[in-house]
Amino acid sequence: MIKSHAGGIDHPGSAAGGIGAGGRAAMEHIPMTQHRAGGQLDILYAGFVLGHGGDAIQMVELAAEIGRRGLQTRILVPELPTTLVVEERARSLGLDLVRTPWIRADATSSRQNLIHLLRAFRDNRASLYHLHTGDVCLPRLALLAIGLLDLKPVVVTTHSPYATMALRSARARHWSHASRHQLDRIICPSDHSRRLQVDYGVPPEKVMTIRNSVDLEHYAGGDAGAAYESLGIDRGRRLILFTSRLDAQKRPRDAIRSFACIAGDFPDTDLVLAGCGAEESRLRELAAAERLSDRVHFPGFQKNVPDWLAAASAWIFPTESENFSLSLLEALAAGCPIVSTECQGNDEVLVNERNALTCQVGDVSAMADGLRRILSDSALARRLSAEARETVSTYSVSHMVDRYARCYNECLGYASPQ
User: Fold this and answer.
1) What single string gives the DSSP state of each residue in 215-235?
2) What is the pTM of this model?
3) In this predicted model, what pLDDT tens digit does every residue of 125-150 receive, in sequence order?
């Protein structure tokens, strides 16, 4: 039985004074539910996110597992067309998710309304507030609302792969001040993003790395036949797979260019770009210019990603920058032979010639060579597949949630073991 009790946020199989072995936090003093006033939530998750990326999915998976441990949660996300995807995922997990106009998010800016933010937080009082942002910091008006309502404790996870805030700028100084006086923890999915937060002036003791995670069994259990059926092609054809947004950051054009370099040598192989985004029309034009329109497929956004991963002979990821990529973890969990860039974020999980073949960002020739090696050498493909599964074994959802549970309880004043 997973429950909230006098030991705090419990975990299946944990001993009576903690969340498990291996130095995890002891949860034996005050249950979170004792912090809760009448009608109050245990944890409010609020996402300043667009909803179609890994940041929103991680928030939902975290809330689902915390809910299984007996705590009452609610998720607030912006009322955008792109948050319909995450709403569907939340509903399938039985979560209380609200798409609201009171929280805003935009790809280039997220101009907030203070009155709406005050109402959102006031009407969803909780014992703990966990805010997620697709940027490197929260919007200023969100910080103002937190201060005006004296919300405590507040945990923030920052998901941006880019340094979107200049060091020593007024915005950075404001964020640094807020992190010292209003926020209890800043969580980063990667070490490089943690270092960035410290550079911005966040006290090192307040910022920590908790890496993203995936449902390992789910992504290892796909049905390749479903992907082939969706494409309407013969299962004898091999597929090079790209599963991410068709946006400039992910560099899907490099995937097509790399495939074009080897397509003539592997006439039984196609490229699949499974995703949606602003680059799609230009990508179709590029495929046509390379005379590969019949071998480059655009199935659009896919909910059954494990099926596509199961069908892949190789997985390609030319991305220029990541925080800690969820799609990369999915491919590792499926045991895909991977060809990827050595960008920051990826370099914290991928090891060239061990669990992937890697190259510098923009090196189309090297990426094509990696694809050629995987398609030509079945022993190499099998070795990369096995190492991928071994690598991802420590990135389970339960492992991530154990780390967050410790963080939450420390913020609420529970003791941790020495």
Assistant:
1) -HHHHH---HHHHHHHHT--T
2) 0.85
3) 999 999 999 999 999 999 999 999 99
H or E segment at 362?
Answer: none
The residues near 351 (Cβ < 8 Å, ≥ 6 apart) are none
In 262-311, the DSSP E strands lie at 269-274, 296-297
Segments forming the whole domain that contains residue 377: 216-392
- Domain of 168, CATH number, reads 3.40.50.2000
Same domain, 188 and 258: no
Contact at 8 Å (CB) between 68 and 2? Answer: yes
Bond preceding residue 417 cis, omega within 30 of 0: no
Q: Do 33 and 163 have their domain in common?
A: yes
> How many structural domains are present in the chain?
2
Angle (deg, nearest 10), helices 280-289 and 252-262: 20
Q: Across the strands, what pairs with 195? A: none
Please, are residues 163 and 136 in contact by the beta-carbon 8 Å criterion?
yes
Reported as a single tens digit per residue, the pLDDT across 45-64 is 999 999 888 899 999 999 99
